[in-house]
Amino acid sequence: MVCESLLALRELVHVLPFSKACCSSNTKYGDGNARESSPFINNAELGRGNMYEGKNMALFEEEMDSNPMVSSLLNKLANYTNLTQGVVEHEADDDSKRKEVKGPRMGTFIGVYLPCLQNILGVILFLRLTWIVGTAGVLESFIIVFMCCACTMLTAISMSAIATNGVVPAGGSYYMISRSLGPEFGGAVGLCFYLGTTFAGAMYILGTIEILLTYITPNAAIFKVTDVAEESEAMLNNMRVYGTCIIILMAIVVFVGVKYVNKLALVFLACVILSIIAIYAGVIKSAFDPPDFPICLLGNRTLSKRNFEVCAKFTESNNETKTTPLWGLFCDSPLLNATCDDYFIRNNVTEIQGIPGIMSGVLADNLWSAYSEKGSIVEKKDQPSVAGSEDSKMSGLPYVFTDIMTYFTMLVGIYFPSVTGIMAGSNRSGDLKDAQKSIPTGTILAISTTSFIYLSCIVLFGACIEGVILRDKFGEAVKGNLVVGTLAWPSPWVIVIGSFFSTCGAGLQSLTGAPRLLQAIARDGIVPFIQIFGHGKANGEPTWALLLTAGICEIGILIASLDSVAPILSMFFLMCYMFVNLACAVQTLLRTPNWRPRFKYYHWTLSFVGMSLCLALMFICSWYYALIAMLIAGCIYKYIEYRGAEKEWGDGIRGLSLNAARYALLRVEDGPPHTKNWRPQLLVLLNLDNEQLVKHPRLLSFTSQLKAGKGLTIVGSVLQGIYLDKCTETQKAEQNVKALMSVEKTKGFCQIVVSPSFRDGISYLIQSAGLGGMKHNTVLMAWPQSWKQTENRFSWKNFVDTVRETTAAQQALLVAKNIDLFPTNQERFTEGNIDVWWIVHDGGMLMLLPFLLRQHKVWRKCKMRIFTVAQMDDNSIQMKKDLQMFLYHLRLNAQVEVVEMFENDISAFTYEKTLMMEQRSQMLKQMQLSKNEREREAQLIHDKNTASRSAPAAEASVAAAVPEKVHMTWTKEKFVAEKHKNKDSNVSGFKDIFNMKPNQSNVRRMHTAVKLNGVVLNKSQDAQLVLLNMPGPPKNRKGDENYMEFLEVLTEGLDRVLLVRGSGREVITIYS
């Protein structure tokens, strides 16, 4: 037989005991359900086909629902696809079906390198880099570019580490920051990055219009003026009108067909690359054949050649001297005897080459800076000049003027947007073949390439172009040509057309990317007020986000000046990069187990330097813009912290908080703090009903009023039973308590304990709540109102034991009597008193509690009164003076009163009350004894009936379990005799109760309680709160119920009472 074989096998290998019952066909598993008819695979009832099915993993089959097979897990991971930008993250979208990405995945070159190149190279390179070089000089321009490129390179290293630390769904920097630093930082920086991207769109559009109206079709201007002084204002108005039209047009294009924008991206990139090639080709050509772009100078002042061709005052023709159009610009008539400008008369007109070429040695002249005030004339430094009269007017004359005041930090702010765009690769992580390999390689290569282009262009521009041309922002001295275009080969139009399409494409890309970034933030649900922008068309296109983006873009358009918009977006990008570096540094320093990036060439010091450089650049660019950007981010952070959705993303800030908490806990002494640092660290003991709801919610209200959010608060409760059976109830109770804590604004921790007995659970909490030095020193609980009820006979025992245990643990105890009458956090006492009855000194806690309560707005207008009791031999007048001086040193404002209690005879009322108390106590004991006897009889009868019906085997086990002294056989005579015996004993016990005399010690204690209660009622019946010393329980446990009666009498007739039992150590001091 199989069973015999198994038994033999057990004896051989010493396996677990195996019963012969194993052959039974009703074998059940631990949950009591029969899983199979036989535990053996060769059971005849099993079909032939599934005989061996699942036998390899049978040991784990009951856990397959929660712990899947490794093969199925790997299959899911293999089929994982990155979610498109704007949809909910993959953790929250497990149930949705993911469609496989169709089409070829992109590699490093197409997917990361070229998009980064297109985003980095752009409008600033073509429109402002020559001006920056001319104004700051080659050396300072090199410093500006090097700082900005170093900032982006360090940020790219940090970003590469984060991007290669696991799968990064599309979302770019927002996803990386939010999952590394938490939802608050992620939301704040994500919105700042969104604003930066949006203002970048405005900057590109302004660049497009500037190229159009200045270099392509100047006659297309709507606002035209003849006065040179008003020309800049007219240009700004033209920018506003054209900008508004273009942004509407671009928004329609993005709304209708975003796919066409993506297809045109390569065309726009080709324009950028061709333009840069044309610049390098022009530099090479200038070495042996410089282009012919003559500049006209009057003295050392540069002239605008928009209104004249010949650079001379007059010409000789047929032996006749004729004045030129230039003469007419400076003189009141074309005649030689006309009245002319004084400077024009004293200085000669000269013509020099604007592009002398790389071999000309002009680099030495362009090494140093030439900053200027707004409205000053662009001058050549080494050119001879004779000063004119001081009263000569320069407005209206054809000079080249500077349009803004220039200085180093301002140029940094204008230049920095030209190095942004390093996130383009990470934004496309969902479309990459291998994102963890492509993002670091492509991004760092793109930054290296663009850094080389920018740095080399600075040197080449300084070596090829005359300084006055470099400082001529709009190319007025070269007939309105784009300055960088004058250097290009084969024609300036290559640069003009290329830069025009480049800026157009960049603007469209910004209007495409920014709404998707906003949609991703909105769909994460961390910022409630932008959730509407998570919606869009049926295909997921962010319609509402596009409208908001166009609206914010319009703000940048209305500013109308590219030089004013550039520093704004610099702030937002720098803040984003700063937090990318911070995220990498935090993760590296914390050494979290999940921090395992594939990119190994990073270090926390590099991230820290990058973060510091970003912060420094923010304040270098514009300190007030930096403060505004940080204020916006801070407001968003606090908004998300208080109103945002709770998200647990395993972020680094949480890890940083845990590390800081651990460090602080290790630093905090595991012992009592100094008296000056003492404050009540509360353990609040709550009672729950059958639905796991809090019975006395106002206990938490009182806690928040007492703590005001300071110090430690642990809210604990006990469920009676076994934890395995009470798991669900425990979770429900914890949720209910935390919800109530949130409503009552009680900041603290919740701890639910499951224990076989309520009393043991309370003991566990008192002993073990807290951690290290952060342990409670005070227990707050409600007075057991129903302690006199027979069915609740254990409540007073638990209460008295809790009092004893807090005393043993050297912890203070606060007992709130009539807790349901205490005020809620919404109530306000406009008047009234908080009365302190200082009977005995046990650490001074009675003095401290009213002070803490009056910090809260509920009790703020209540006055503090202190009463103390004087005996027969005490000098009450001196006591009052001493108490007033003591309060003065304690810096407490309170009214002092000394109440005299003289010895007198014990009243009949006190004697009677004591007698009734002892009779009640004795009667309860008799009733309890009688009830126990009845329960014992019923149990014996039940055991007898059970025994008569059991099988022989069961009889043996029951007999073994029942003690020998219990007789299982009952006769009628025995039963009657036992019944009469109990009845006689009960009757005699009750007769003793009515003949007893009260204990003298109890009489004295009752006398004190009655007398003191009368005094308190007389003085404090109308007080809003009465604080009273709580006497300790008797050392003899037989008098516990009498102790409860004493406390009841002591507080009788008072609405709100807080019984205070100090820990014995001083908690308040007169010293500073």
UniProtKB/TrEMBL annotation:
Annotated signal peptide: none
Xref: InterPro entries: AA-permease/SLC12A_dom, KCL_cotranspt, SLC12_C, SLC12A_fam
Keyword terms, alphabetized: Cell membrane, Chloride, Glycoprotein, Ion transport, Membrane, Phosphoprotein, Potassium, Potassium transport, Symport, Transmembrane, Transmembrane helix, Transport
Cell compartment(s), UniProt: Cell membrane
Principal location class: membrane
Domain Amino acid permease/ SLC12A: from-to ranges: 112-284, 405-683
GO cellular component, one term: plasma membrane
Membrane-spanning intervals of the chain: 106-129, 141-164, 185-206, 241-258, 265-284, 404-424, 444-470, 490-508, 544-562, 568-590, 602-626
Membrane topology note: Multi-pass membrane protein
Catalysed reactions listed for this entry: K(+)(in) + chloride(in) = K(+)(out) + chloride(out)
GO biological process terms held by the UniProt record: cell volume homeostasis; chemical synaptic transmission; chloride ion homeostasis; potassium ion homeostasis; potassium ion import across plasma membrane
Pfam families: AA_permease, SLC12
Molecular function in Gene Ontology: potassium:chloride symporter activity
Domain SLC12A transporter C-terminal: 813-1072
Family assignment from sequence similarity: Belongs to the SLC12A transporter family. K/Cl co-transporter subfamily.
Protein name per the record: Solute carrier family 12 member 7
The organism of origin for this protein: Ficedula albicollis (Collared flycatcher)
Gene: LOC101805840
